[in-house]
Design goal:
Shape: globular
Largest sheet: 7 strands, mixed
Pfam families: Pyr_redox_2, SO_alpha_A3
GO molecular function: oxidoreductase activity
Keywords: Oxidoreductase
Organism: Thalassobaculum fulvum
Strand content: 15-25%
Protein name: Pyridine nucleotide-disulfide oxidoreductase
Number of strands: 21
Distance between the termini: 13 Å
Structural class: alpha/beta
């Protein structure tokens, strides 16, 4: 078993993780970055070294590569705990098991797509738009229209971005099914718009360009879409839906769905960090201060894993977390910290105003409202909404008790996909706030671990910091 020591361990090599690593290494900290993807960049900058692309990402990666930082790709974090007062990260690289003990830990695990179950969503060919975008970025793959066509159903900026990317790659899209809720308050939006424009004018310009590209593409757009159903025998063959004009059926071989993203909180919940329910984004997120410092000493959370704010804000959050960690460790002086942090906070505050406008413009729906009893919620264990409701009626008044009664959340994803929906079903059935209901408890290992790795952990020499 590999054992190493660092001043700062960072989980995640996306915008927040790379920014934190570049900042910390520049100050002089010994940095180890752990990321499970084939290369650095995260979801936003996927394939950064191979494809190039975002200048900010390339610059950050160049700085990290030029430093003494250790960057471990294809490395899966399977457990995080404490050795005394210091964080200890257990990781898996192929068949090799390692542990990194650090004086501080920054969680920059990013976001995951929000799961909103609907009839037929487990059919082959129904995919998250984020997964489709990954296939495009990683391998240049777009759905073949000769197989039946691509329909995109969802809401939010990623739908527009993916449409633009598919068309640029020579692909086609049969239709866009816009599931955004109609009837939003224009007065509320008008009050927030000036501050949002001031905070991120460039972002709104990019959004306007994506809307213009959608209009020029002449791809049919159905607005106010409800009651989505994927139909097919062995795989998706059509999508049925309702809009203001009535009921429709469109043939397709791939149905891309997207309902926004939520923070990846698995490690933070494993560490029992305090989390609260963000009603505007309908997600749990860790409680942090302005610098990302979490409720447990020695732990910071940065980027979309702390709350959805976007790639630029994630970079700022990563820099702030690294500066604060260096200050707490004692490597960065108070005057040096005070010279750098305020400008980062101001810029991030502007981006946060823009994000609040977007949240108000297109709020996510409660997935439990239209969830039919026969719809599968936990695809790993094939648990339906009706089975969950029956367990709640029988006395399972919380997500963890419902998990025990139904096995919802016991599969390979360990509740990443179904856990938030489970909490919202419990809240709706019991008449309690989601924040009071809480989320599933997380236990190690965080990801499936081969038996050989478990044997290495069991038979390897004890992790002794004094030997490092």
């Amino acid at each position: 078993m590999t054992a190493e020591r660092a001043d700062l361990a960072i989980v995640g090599a996306g915008p927040a993780g790379l920014a934190a690593a570049a900042t910390a290494a520049g100050i002089g900290l010994r940095v180890t970055v752990l990321d499970e993807q084939p290369g650095p960049g995260g979801q936003v900058w996927r394939g950064l070294e191979r494809r190039g692309g975002d200048r900010a990402g390339i610059d950050l990666l160049r700085r990290v590569r030029a430093s003494d930082a250790v960057l471990r790709s294809r490395t899966t974090v399977v457990d995080v705990g404490f050795g005394g007062d210091e964080p200890v990260v257990t990781w898996l690289d192929g068949d090799r098991v390692g542990r990194t003990m650090a004086r501080a830990l920054i969680l920059a695990a990013g976001a995951i797509e929000r799961t909103v179950p609907f009839p037929g969503w487990t059919l082959p060919g129904v995919m998250g738009v984020g997964a489709l975008q990954t296939a495009l970025k990683s391998g240049g793959l777009v759905p073949d229209p000769r197989d039946g066509g691509l329909v995109i159903a969802g809401r939010g900026p990623l739908v527009l971005l993916y449409l633009s990317q598919v068309l640029a790659a020579g692909g086609t899209v049969s239709a866009i099914l816009d599931t955004a809720a109609p009837g939003r308050s224009l007065a509320t939006l008008a009050r927030r718009l000036p501050a949002a424009l001031l905070g991120d004018a460039a972002g709104f310009v990019r959004g306007a360009m994506l809307l213009a590209r959608r209009a020029l593409s002449r791809v049919p757009v159905h607005r106010g879409v409800r009651r989505l159903v994927a139909e097919g025998a062995e795989r998706v063959e059509a999508v049925r839906f309702t809009d203001a004009a009535g009921d429709h059926v469109l043939p397709c071989s791939v149905l891309g769905v997207h309902d926004g993203v939520v923070p990846n909180t698995q490690i933070g919940r494993l560490l029992r960090l305090d989390h609260d329910w963000r009603a505007g984004q309908r997600c749990f997120a860790p409680v942090t201060d302005d610098y990302g410092r979490a409720s447990r000493r020695g732990v910071w959370v940065a980027g979309d894993g702390a709350g959805i704010e976007g790639a630029e804000a994630a970079q700022l959050a990563g820099r702030l977390a690294a500066l604060d960690a260096a200050r707490v460790i004692g490597v960065l002086s108070e005057p040096a910290f005070a010279n750098q942090a305020p400008s980062l906070l101001r810029r991030r505050a502007g981006l946060q105003m823009a994000r609040r406008f977007l949240d108000a413009l297109d709020p996510p729906r409660d997935p439990a409202v239209e969830l039919a009893d026969g719809t599968i919620v936990c695809r790993c264990e094939e648990v339906t909404a009706g089975e969950i409701r029956s367990a709640i009626a029988a006395g399972a008044g919380g997500p963890n008790r419902a998990k025990t009664a139904t096995r919802c959340g016991m599969g390979a994803c360990q509740g990443r996909m179904c856990g938030p929906v489970l909490s919202q079903i419990v809240a709706r059935e019991t008449g309690r706030p989601v924040g009071e209901v809480g989320a599933l408890r997380i236990r190690p290992p965080l990801k499936p671990v081969p038996m050989g790795a478990i044997a290495a952990l069991a038979t390897g020499d004890p992790f002794d910091p004094e030997e490092l």
